[in-house]
Every structure is written in C-alpha cells, then in structure tokens.
Amino acid sequence: MLSVLKSLQTLTRTSLGRAIHAEHNTVETSHVFHIGAGCPEDRQCEGREKVEPGEPPPLKATSPRRHPMTTDLPLSLQLSDGMSRFHEYFKAESRFPRHVGTSRGAVNAIYEMADGSFSKRGMNLRMYLSSAGELRKHLTVHHTIEERHIFPLLAKRMPTFKDDEQHIKSHHGIHEGLDKLGAFIEKWLAEPATYSPEEMKACLDGWREVLFRHLDEEVEDLRGENMKKYWTLEEVDRIVV
C-alpha cells in the first residue's frame, strides 16, 4: 500500500492543497490549506491578507498574471482539473498499483478481487482488507477536506454545494456505505473464516455507482463555463488550492 499512500499524498497536495492525514481521520489545522487570500496561522505570507476558512475571497487587485479566457476560467485548471486528477485515483487504473487491479481503478479493483482472486495478485485476505480500509480512509479524508474548506466557500454562491444540496447528500450516501464497509472489514480481520465475497460485493454495490456519479458531477460543476455564472475572473484568480 506504500505506493497507494504516496500517490494519494501527491495528488492531495497538488489538487486540494495541504491535507492532513491524522489518526481517526481528523484534520490538523496547522497544515490545512486555505482557500482565498489567507495563510495558515503558523506561517508568514508576505503581501497576503488573512481570510477565515469558508469566507469568500476579497475583491482586490490581483497579480499581473493572466489566464486565457476564450474557453474557460482559470479555475477549471485549478479546481475542476485538480479534482479530476484526484478522482482518477479512484477510477482510472494508472492511479492504482499493479498488484491491486487493472480495471477502472481502486474501487473496481477492490470489487473485482472480492471473490478471493486477490490471492492471484500476491495478496492474502488481511492484505486485501487492509487495501479496502486504506481506500475507505482516503475517501473519508478527501471528503472531509471538501466539506470543511472547499464547499463552504463555493456554497456562498453555488447552490449545489450547500449543506442540504446535491454534493453533500451524495457524500452522506457514500459514507453510509463506507461505514458499513468499515464494520465488515473490522469483523473479517478479527474472524477471517467468516469472510463472505457475496457480502463484500453487496456492500460495495451499495455506494460504488453513487461515488462515480458524484465524482463526475463535482468536476462538471467546477468547470469554467459553469463557474462564470457565479464568480468574476478576479475572484476566481484568488481561489488558491
């Protein structure tokens, strides 16, 4: 799983900012990225005004750098493209280590090996369940960062990111399934003889397609053409991820 962790750490830094992976899926505020012009409290950022997480970026003159506006806002290169690259870990085979799967990616690899074929990939049951547990953990961390630091800002003007709307509802549905997966993993690690391929696949079927649909919808909402409806170029240019 070392290569999985490295891939996720790299993708998290580049597409979502500095996410903190602490015990019990908590987030340490000292290293969490900030959207807007603000900086973490323990760092000095010359020339930048501190902005509380979740607040809209201030309308101020930006740096001279400009981005092509003919087809997209620059945010599509930051949020949408960044989200897309992170999401590909869960959906595209190039983001998952070879010994785990070769189909659509991490989630589908876990699904395909539920029948016990993980043994053909050099894994025993404990290794397979640990891989599923790591996937669950990183999905949880990814969504925690979104809900605490990205969605509150976007929700100021974009209804689909509000607490009772599309994306949060999708998160809730996904994490109901992830909670069930966690319970199964804990049970089977303690009692390997009780492992059931049928139960594992049924559990994954309960949230897998919801996850993939959510990932695609999220990226679409962050594309430049959609962002133009809610944000000016100056505001978009100050959203740092």
What would the average pLDDT be, to the nearest integer? 66
Q: Report the sheet with the most strands, covering strand number, pairing sense and barrel closure.
A: none
Number of domains: 1
Count of individual beta strands: 0
How many angstroms separate the termini?
26 Å
Overall structural class, as computed from helix and strand content, comes to mainly alpha
Fraction of residues in helix: 40-55%
Q: Rg to the nearest angstrom?
A: 19 Å
Descriptive key words:
disordered N terminus, elongated, mainly alpha, Dimeric_xanthone_biosynth, Hemerythrin-like domain-containing protein, Hemerythrin-like, 52% helix, 0% strand, 9 helices, 241 residues
Fold and architecture overview:
The longest helix is centred in the middle third of the chain and has 30 residues. This protein is mainly alpha-helical and 241 residues long. The relative contact order is 0.17. α5 runs antiparallel to α7. It is built from 9 helices and no strands. The N terminus is likely disordered. The chain has one domain.
Brief summary:
Residues 44-70 are annotated as: Disordered. By secondary structure, the protein is mainly alpha-helical. 52% of the residues lie in helices and 0% in strands.
Architecture blueprint of SSEs:
Blueprint: H1 2-16, H2 75-91, H3 106-112, H4 125-154, H5 166-190, H6 197-205, H7 208-221, H8 224-227, H9 233-237
Helix pairs in contact: 1-2, 1-4, 2-7, 4-5, 5-7
